[in-house]
Amino acid sequence: MAQHKKGPAPRTIALERIEILFDQAYRNRSDPALADRYVALAREIAMRHRMRMPRKFRRAFCPVCHVYIVPGDNFRVRIQHGKVISTCRICGTVIRYPLH
Ligand SMILES: [Zn+2]
């Protein structure tokens, strides 16, 4: 019988890889081309496993053009009326979310 049930679940491995990729993106945030590449790879893994991007990474990249977010660099972050308003400097997308 084929041993395909050994080791951690594929999604656990996928999550681990996504974490490594976002960690690398963070370390290479001064190199946008490289950081964006890590985001692209992380998204590919999530899509392949049909899993939702974990909450902590969902705000790490632009939902429209997928650039890795570096506040103050490619993203403008402002707080207004108790909401965080982030504007992507690459594609102009505005993201608003409540401030807790
Ligand atoms: Zn964008």
UniProtKB/TrEMBL annotation:
Cofactor note as given: Binds 1 zinc ion per subunit.
Signal peptide: none
Keywords: Cytoplasm, Endonuclease, Hydrolase, Metal-binding, Nuclease, tRNA processing, Zinc
Pfam families, A to Z: Rpr2
Family according to the record: Belongs to the eukaryotic/archaeal RNase P protein component 4 family.
Role summary: Part of ribonuclease P, a protein complex that generates mature tRNA molecules by cleaving their 5'-ends.
Listed name of the protein: Ribonuclease P protein component 4
Organism: Methanocorpusculum vombati
Gene this protein is translated from: rnp4
